[in-house]
Design a protein that fits this description.
This protein is α/β, with parallel strands linked by helices. The chain has a single domain, classed as Rossmann fold (3-Layer(aba) Sandwich), CATH 3.40.50.720. About 45% of the residues lie in helices and about 15% in strands. The protein contains nine helices and nine strands. The strands form two sheets. It has a seven-stranded parallel sheet with strand order 3-2-1-4-6-7-9, with helices on both faces. A two-stranded parallel ribbon has the order 5-8. α2 links the parallel β2 and β3. The N and C termini lie far apart (about 60 Å).
C-alpha cells in the first residue's frame, strides 16, 4: 500500500486517478482548490482518503498539505503533479498577467510541490514523481504557444530531475496525454480576451467559440489512470509515457519531421567547428 498525493482532483484525469488509486487499496491525499468536489471520495474511503484544499500557487498551502499527508499516512510515496489548465491565444494576443498566472500554476506550482516532497523522499531513498504534461509540448499547435511552453518547461525540468534522483532510488516520469474526455477543453480552458483578426485562420481556429472537440475526445480518463498506476508499479518506469493513440501518432509524426530537418541541414549544423 502506497500513499499518493495528487493535485487537481476535482475533475478529469486527476479525479479518475484518485478513484483508481483508492479502489486498488492505496492511500491517497486528494487535493483541489475547492474541497467540496472531494467530499464523495472522502466519504467512500474514510480510512485511506485525505481530502485537502490546495492551490498550487500558494506555498503555504503546499507546505500544509505535505505536512498533513505525512502526519496522517507517514510519508508521500507518489506525487502526481496534475493541477493545471489550458490557455489559448496567439503569442501576440496574450495578456501578460494571463501568461504569468499560467506559468505560476503549470510550472512553478509543480516545482514547489516537488521541492516540498523531496526532502522526505531523499531521506527514505524511495519515491515516485509523475508530472502530467501534454502532447502539446511536442506538437506546439498554433494558438497554444504559452500552454505548450509551460509543458515543455515541465518536461525539460523533469529530464534533469530524473537524472538527479535515479541514483537516490526516486523515479521521475513525464506523462503526455492526448485528447481525453475531461473538462480540459471546457471549464478548464481559458483564452485571451481580445483576438487579433490576422490570426483568425491560425490561432483563431482554436478559440473556445470555434472548438468542437469538447465532449468528443477519444481518450478514456479511467483507462489513463490504469496506465499511470501500471507505470508506478512497474520495476522499470519510463522517462516518458505517451497516452492515447492520437498522442502516439502525433509524437511519431513530429519525431519523423524533426529527423528529416536534422538530416537535411546536417552540413550546415556540423560546419561550425574551429578549423585546425
Amino acid at each position: 500500500m502506497a500513499t499518493w498525493l495528487i493535485t487537481g482532483c476535482s475533475t478529469g484525469l486527476g479525479r479518475a486517478l484518485a478513484e483508481t488509486v483508492l479502489a486498488r487499496g492505496h492511500r491517497a491525499v486528494v487535493t483541489a482548490r475547492n474541497t467540496e468536489t472531494l467530499h464523495e471520495l472522502g466519504a467512500a474511503y474514510p480510512e485511506t482518503a485525505l481530502a485537502l484544499p490546495l492551490d498550487v500557487t500558494d506555498r503555504e498551502q503546499i507546505t500544509a498539505a505535505v505536512q498533513q499527508a505525512q502526519a496522517r499516512f507517514g510519508a508521500v510515496d507518489v506525487l502526481v503533479n496534475n493541477a493545471g489548465y489550458g490557455y489559448r491565444a496567439a503569442v501576440e494576443e496574450a495578456d501578460d498577467a494571463d501568461i504569468r498566472r499560467l506559468f505560476d500554476t503549470n510550472v512553478f506550482g509543480a516545482i514547489d510541490m516537488i521541492k516540498a516532497v523531496l526532502p522526505d523522499m531523499r531521506a527514505r531513498r524511495a519515491g515516485s514523481i509523475l508530472n502530467i504534461s501534454s502532447i502539446g509540448a511536442r506538437i506546439s499547435p498554433a494558438g497554444s504557444g504559452y500552454y505548450s511552453a509551460t509543458k515543455a518547461a515541465l518536461e525539460g525540468l523533469s529530464g534533469s530531475l530524473r537524472k538527479e534522483l535515479q541514483p537516490l532510488g526516486i523515479n521521475v516520469t513525464v506523462v503526455e496525454p492526448g485528447a481525453f474526455r475531461t473538462d480540459f477543453a471546457g471549464r478548464s480552458l481559458t483564452q485571451s480576451a481580445t483576438p487579433i483578426e490576422d490570426y483568425a485562420d491560425t490561432a483563431g481556429r482554436r478559440r473556445k467559440e470555434h472548438d468542437t472537440i469538447h465532449g468528443t475526445q477519444p481518450g478514456d480518463p479511467a483507462k489513463a489512470a490504469e496506465a499511470i498506476l501500471a507505470v508506478v508499479e512497474s520495476e522499470n518506469p519510463p522517462a516518458l509515457l505517451v497516452l492515447g493513440e492520437d498522442a502516439f501518432d502525433a509524437f511519431g509524426a513530429v519525431a519523423q519531421a524533426e529527423r528529416a530537418d536534422l538530416d537535411q541541414w546536417r552540413d550546415v549544423s556540423v560546419s561550425t567547428a574551429i578549423e585546425d
